[in-house]
Write a structure and sequence with these properties.
The structure holds two protein chains of two kinds. In chain A, about 0% of the residues lie in helices and about 50% in strands. Chain A is built from no helices and twelve strands. Chain B is mainly beta. Chain B is built from no helices and eleven strands. Classes of the chains: A mainly beta, B mainly beta. At the A-B interface, β5, β6, β10 and β11 of A face β4, β5, β9 and β10 of B.
Chain lengths: ~120, ~120
C-alpha cells in the first residue's frame, strides 16, 4: 500500500516571497504519478501540477515547480512570487500508473497562508 | 462551462434519512470517482466507476451505494444516514483508467453533507 506524508500542518509566507511545501511518499511501485492539488476556502480541488515518475525533469507550471527526488521518495512544491490568492490548503497525492485501480492517495494536507 | 458538477452543494438532513448526491461530467471521461473529505480535511477514495462498471470499492458501509446510469453520471445514494457521515463528498473524473497509464483527476465543487 502507498502512503503519502505531509509533515508540516501549516506554513506562512510573505507576499512575493518563495515557499516550499514538503511531501514524502512510500511505494514499491516503479511507475507512478505524483500531484499537488490546491483547495482554497471555496473548497474546490484544483490541480496545481503533476509529475510522472519516469521523467527525470521536474515539472513546472508558471510560478509552481516541483523538486522530485525519486530515490529519496520526495516531492516538494515550490511556489515563487507568492500571491494572496495562493492562500489555501495544499494536498500532495500519489497514483499508481499501472492497473485499473487508479485511485489518488492523499497526504493530510498543509495550510498555506500568504501574508500581505 | 462546468466540467464536473455536483448537486446539491449543501445538504442538511436528519439522522436515519436517505439522501442522494448527483454528479455529472462533460469532459468525455470514462472514469468517475467518489471521495470523502472528513472534518480533519483528510481525503479518501470511496468508489470508482469505469464506463458504468464498478472498479474500486474501498471499505465503505453498505449504506453507501453508487450508481452510474451512463459514463457521464455517477450518483451516490446513502441510506440510514448517521452522524459520522457528515463530511464533504467530492466527485472526480478522469480519462480511461487503463492498464498502462493513470490520468489526471478533475474534481467537482464538493457537496457538504451535515447530518443532525
Amino acid at each position: 500500500a502507498q502512503t503519502v506524508t505531509q509533515s508540516q500542518p501549516e506554513m506562512s509566507v510573505q507576499e512575493a516571497e518563495t515557499v516550499t511545501l514538503s511531501c514524502t511518499y512510500d511505494t514499491s511501485e516503479n511507475n507512478y504519478y505524483l500531484f499537488w492539488y490546491k483547495q482554497p476556502p471555496s473548497r474546490q480541488m484544483i490541480l496545481v501540477i503533476r509529475q510522472e515518475a519516469y521523467k527525470q525533469q521536474n515539472a513546472t507550471e508558471n510560478r509552481f515547480s516541483v523538486n522530485f527526488q525519486k530515490a529519496a521518495k520526495s516531492f516538494s512544491l515550490k511556489i515563487s512570487d507568492s500571491q494572496l490568492g495562493d492562500t489555501a490548503m495544499y494536498f500532495c497525492a500519489f497514483m499508481k500508473q499501472k492497473g485499473a485501480n487508479s485511485k489518488l492517495t492523499f497526504g493530510k494536507g498543509i495550510t498555506l497562508s500568504v501574508r500581505p | 462551462d462546468t466540467a464536473v458538477s455536483q448537486t446539491p452543494k449543501y445538504l442538511v438532513t436528519q439522522m436515519g434519512n436517505d439522501k442522494s448526491i448527483k454528479c455529472e461530467q462533460n469532459l468525455g471521461h470514462d472514469t468517475m470517482y467518489w471521495y470523502k473529505q472528513d472534518s480533519k480535511k483528510f481525503l479518501k477514495i470511496m468508489f470508482s466507476y469505469n464506463n458504468k462498471e464498478l472498479i474500486i470499492n474501498e471499505t465503505v458501509p453498505n449504506r453507501f451505494s453508487p450508481k452510474s446510469p451512463d459514463k457521464a453520471h455517477l450518483n451516490l445514494h446513502i441510506n440510514s444516514l448517521e452522524l459520522g457521515d457528515s463530511a464533504v463528498y467530492f466527485c472526480a473524473s478522469s480519462r480511461l483508467a487503463g492498464l498502462y497509464e493513470g490520468e489526471t483527476q478533475y474534481f467537482g465543487p464538493g457537496t457538504r453533507l451535515l447530518v443532525l
